[in-house]
Structure formats: structure tokens, C-alpha cells
Amino acid sequence: MHPAFSVIFLTTLIGAGQGLFLALFTGQLYSTVRLVEQQPSSFYAVGSALSLALLVGGLAASFFHLGRPERAWRAAAMWRTSWLSREVIVLPAMMGLVFLYGVFHWAGWTQPWLVLGEGALTIDATFVLGMLGVLVALVLFVSTGMIYASVKFLQEWSSPYTIANFIFLGTASGFMLAAAYSALIGNNLVSFFGTWAVIATLLGLGTRSASLMRNATLKHRSNLQTAIGVRHRGIVQKSQGFSADSFNTREFFHHQSLRTLKLIRVAFLILVFPVPIMLVLLGYQLQSTTLPILAFAIQYLGLLAERWYFFAEAQHPQNLYYQQVS
Amino acid sequence: MTQLALVIDLNVCVGCHACVTSCKQWNTSGWAGPMVDENPYDANPTGTFFNRVQTYEIGSFPSTETVHFPKSCLHCEDPPCVPVCPTGASYKREDNGVVLVDYDKCIGCKYCSWACPYGVRELDEQQQVMKKCTLCIDRIADHTLPEPERKPACVMACPTNARLYGDVHDPDSEVSVAIRERGGYALMPEWGTNPANHYLPRQKTHMHVTEEDLQRSDNPLTKEDITVYQGEETMEDVTW
Question: Which of A278, A300, B162, B227 has the highest Cβ tally under 10 A?
């Protein structure tokens, strides 16, 4: 497939936004049960604003993918059958919850509604919003992943790994950002978020490597024989029916050399996994406030390459029909 | 239920592209507005077509065969492009099974083209909506046209009658009989899309000439010799 930058930015930005929200609420959960230190409400409010900004950025990027962005509102119609439509509904829902979560923290509307276990767990409005947000974030990850995983003849995508990768890589980048954010404002949650970021990154490494290995030995079910329905080993296309290019030659192929593809794969395997993990560990050792920020930035750059490769790697069966100009 | 479709006879298609040009001519002058054509008389011409004729060579020299292969939307009975459309712009008509795009609802997200394994949906670069073969819905559903003209433009244009058109759900239609009796097949059956359009395979006309056809072993003109010989010269001895 042709890697479109609109979709690359959409999926990486909202992934980081969702992940950051998951990180914020994890922080709140831990501080509620007093496993980590209490944070001021501004920490959650600014964090939510950051998460919201990433989600809005992703949504803005997605508009560049549309031929008719002014009709984008129509895309909510077919949620019964289309994962794209489901994403279009869930993304604004996520934004709304993140917004409310931030506003409730900022306004200090955190009077406990329910206190469980003699003050061990206090449930307030932000707790409920946070739980809902976690649920919606997961649904959004699944919706985004299923857009790709549900196209069964794009065999590189059509696997549960696709969804696992979206969940773990988005979560990893969000926790990295939470660690970077904590380092920037100088609170003591850097190693807490950093640890979770490393765990999510390692899980992502597991599922992404698994999907790379799966795709390396993937046997494509379609070939020229089934494409034109002639049972013969020696079929060669002599003309694709036009002399220059068309939508079919532009949309479904990356037009890069195999070398470039390999280079990008190596780049993302280094930038997404070992480098940020090393930087987080090093930052922990040196008590550095800049290394977690660098870790997030490098991982995000790597995720752009990862997403580019994700698209380029998928081989659409329609390309069987477009192999020879004349 | 009706399922209109094309059956393309690869045995007689000569690859003249008349179906391509007639399709473009009819549909570019239709109600949906022109189909884009960029640099039509220049280097790198590109544009939207509903139908393309491709050419394949099968086998290796000298025993090769050229197959001209017209490809347009197959109007699948289980079209994978329809359920993925987020706006409902892509739909399959209930009454005749034609898969269509509502150009006023399409947002140009291209997801349906990703979800079509055959690559028959093309984004119109000017209108920025997805376009595809309509089976000339504005001809076949137009009751003001005389009956013989209620056919897709490509079917009308084909000089070798390689394109048959009709209802593949009616077992007695020309297309159903052709599929049944002449080995009609669907493209990429592995994805369960159930294409309504079918292709008729190439059929070589073989002449079987046996030795007996050239040299009769039992010549009926040979008279049976019923003489009973007893030691004297026979007819064979005289002849040879």
C-alpha cells in the first residue's frame, strides 16, 4: 500500500494521545490507593490538555486523507458495518471524555462520591470519567486496528497482531510522553511512568516482531492464476491497459526500492524499541530530566517509520493486475 | 431476485478497447459529470476509467497464447467494498444487484478501494469521489430507451460480441446458460466475494485426425473371395 502521511500522523498522534490518557489515569489510580505520591490537579489538567491536543492533531491530520473533508460528518452513519465509521464515532467520544476529565481536575470537582475500605479507595467524578476514558481508549485502539485487520485480503494486516501493535505501541508512546511530561515539570513520577513505558514498549516489541515474522513467511492466497482465472504457470502481463499511471498504480504501491523498505524497518526497530528503553534506564540512573523527553521524541519518530513500514509492507492483491505498462 | 452482470468471453475478445472508449464516452457525458482526464494528449496521460482491457501472455515461446482481459467492477454478490464504507455512499441495489456509489455522499476516504481485491474502484482526482462501473445504470434502468438499447455501453460497442449481459440469477438467461455450459468462472474465488460477472475461458478448437481417417484399414470395395482353393495358385499369388 501507499503510505499516506495523513494516516501515519493520524494513527501515531491519537495513539500517543490515548496512551497519555491511560498513563494519567494509571497515575491517578496509583495515587488514589497511595502507591505513588498525590499530584496537584494541574498535573492532570495540563496532561489532559496535552492528550486532547494530540487527539485533535490526529483528527486534523485525518482530514487531509479525505477527498471531500467537508462531508466528513457523514462518516458516522454506517457504524453497524464499518470499523472506520466506528472510529469516527469513538474518537470524538474519547476527546470529550479527556476534556471532561481535565476540566473536572482543573476545577477541583473531586469530592468523593464513595469511599471504600475506610479511605483506601475514594471514588469521585474524575475516577468514573477516567474509567470510562480507559474503556473508550481501548475501544478506539481496537477500532483503529480493525480498520486494517478487517480487510482480509490484505493478509499482512489481517491478523490479531495488528490490533495488539496499535494498543501496545500507542500505550508505550503515551507513557513515554507521561514520563517526559513529568520530567519537564519535575515531579517524581518519571520512573513510575518510565517503568510502564518500558513494559509497554517490550510488549510492543513482542507483538511487532511476531507480526514481522508472520509476514516474512506469509503465503499470499491470490496470484496471477486466480486473478485472471487461467491455470498456467507461465503468465506474464504484457499490458495493464494504459500507458502512464492511474489511481491503481498510485494508491496501492509504495514505489520504493526493497532497500529503502529494509532501511526503514531497521530504523524503526532501533528507534522504537532499544533506544527509548536505554534512554529511560539511563535517565533513571542519571536522574536526568532531558533524557525521558528525548526518549519520547525518538520513539515517536520511530513510530512514524513503523507506521510507514506497516503500510508499505501490505501487498494488495489488485497489484497483480498492474505489473506492466505495455 | 435479479442480479445483473456481464459475462466476458475471453475466447472471442480481440483486445480492441472499444468497450473502454464507449464506456468512457457514455459515462463522461452522463448525469454524474465528466470523468477526469489529465494530460490526455500529453506525456503521462491519466484519468478515471470504469473499464480497462489488459493483455496477458500465457506460456513460453513458441507455444504462447495472448489473452485480452477486460476488467471492470464485478458487481459481487457479497461485495467487500460496501460494508466498509463509513457513509453508506457505497451500496448494492436491492432490485438488480448493481453496486453503486452515491457521489453526493462519498467523502473520498478511499477505504472501499482498499477493500476491493480486484482494483476496480478509482478515485476521480477532480471530483475527489470514488468512481466505478455502474453497469450503465442510466441506460439499463431507462425505460424510455427501446428495449434492445437497455444494455451497458460496452456491451453495445463490442464488435465480437465478447460481452454478454443479463440476469445471472435467471437460470434460463443467456448469461446463465453461457456460464453453465461454457465453463464460466469467477475471479479470485478465494475471497468469497461471489462476483456476479463471470469470464468464459479460452477454448482451442482441436481437430482429431486418426490414422484410420486417412488410411482405411477395411476397404469396403474389396470383394470377398469365396472360392475354395485346394493347392492351386490363389488370387494373391497372381496379384503379388
Answer: B162
**To the nearest whole angstrom, how far is the Cα of B202 from the nearest Cα of chain A?**
9
Report the predicted TM-score, pTM, of the whole model to 2 decimal places: 0.91
Looking up cell 492464476 gives A225
Sign of the torsion angle spanned by Cα atoms B57, B61, B65, B66: positive
Q: Which helix (H) or strand (E) holds B51?
A: strand B51-58
| Residue A173, in any domain of the structure | yes
Residue A170 lies in a domain: yes
Tens digits of per-residue pLDDT, B164-214?
999 999 999 999 999 999 999 999 999 999 999 999 999 888 888 887 777
Q: pLDDT tens digits for A159-202?
A: 999 999 999 999 999 999 999 999 999 888 999 999 999 999 99
Q: Choose, out of A62, A228, A320, the residue to mutate when testing the contact with B (most B CBs < 10 Å).
A: A228
Q: At what angle do helices A291-313 and A190-216 cross, to 10 degrees?
A: 20
Total structural domains in chain B? Answer: 1
Complex ipTM, two decimals? 0.92
Residue at grid coordinates 470395395: B221
With bands split at pLDDT 50, 70 and 90, how would you rate the model's confidence at B76?
A: very high
Is residue A209 a part of any domain in this protein?
yes
Count of Cβ atoms closer than 10 Å to residue A203 Cβ: 17
What gap in Å lies between CA A41 and CA A110, rounded to an integer? Answer: 9
How big is the CA angle at A74 (ends A68 and A80), to the nearest 5 degrees? 130
What part of B 131-190 touches A (C-beta under 8 Å)? 185-190
Q: What is the per-residue DSSP string for A172-227?
A: HHHHHHHHHHHHHHT-TTHHHHHHHHHHHHHHHHHHHHHHHHHHHTPPPS--HHHH
In a domain, A285, yes or no: yes
